[in-house]
Amino acid sequence: MNSKRSKTRRQTVQTNPTCPLCGGVEVTTSWTSFAFNYGSGESMAELTESIPTRLCVVCKFEYLDEEAERLKHDAVCRHLGVLTPTEIRRIRKEYNLTRAKFAQLTGFGEASLNRWENGLSIQTHAYDQYLRLLRNPSNIRELELKGSISGTPSQTAALPRGRFRALNLTDSLLKAQKSFQLCKVG
Ligand SMILES: [Zn+2]
Predict the structure, then answer these.
(1) DSSP 71-120
(2) How far is the CA of 57 from the centre of ligand 1 (A)?
(3) Which residues surround ligand 1, an ion (CB under 5 A)?
């Protein structure tokens, strides 16, 4: 009965939507063009995105789910010219890093990363530029290299040996210091 819709099929995250009202699993999806405002004042823009509307066959409840939210969020990111949550996640996954490891390597806050990847907040332009640079593996390698020669106290201590060594206040040193002071005054 329901012929193919003219809209192009998108990859659906929720393959088997479940009705949040009655729990029914017979849910149909229709894609509709959805317009919404983003921003305020002069910078306000009307964005349009094709989003899925679910309809429960059993109780006739019609609703939008997280996939619609995600698509709207992606539209905002595109409007702002920044990476989408999926794109950010992809960068991290490219290097097989957990969020904690990626945060440690890049200096991003783990909580921030979590929010960006889940569309709870949008990274600033500067962070976005930084993220883009991290798509280049040689930049990641540079950070890894930097991380391996500095950071942990034992490694740092091994670095400037000789020139800026911490003084051990031994008896002989203290004596030497006293004699120096005496010399100076006398
Ligand atoms: Zn239902």
Answers:
(1) HHHHHHHHHHT---HHHHHHHHHHTT--HHHHHHHH---HHHHHHHHTTS
(2) 7
(3) 19, 21-22, 24, 56, 58-59, 61
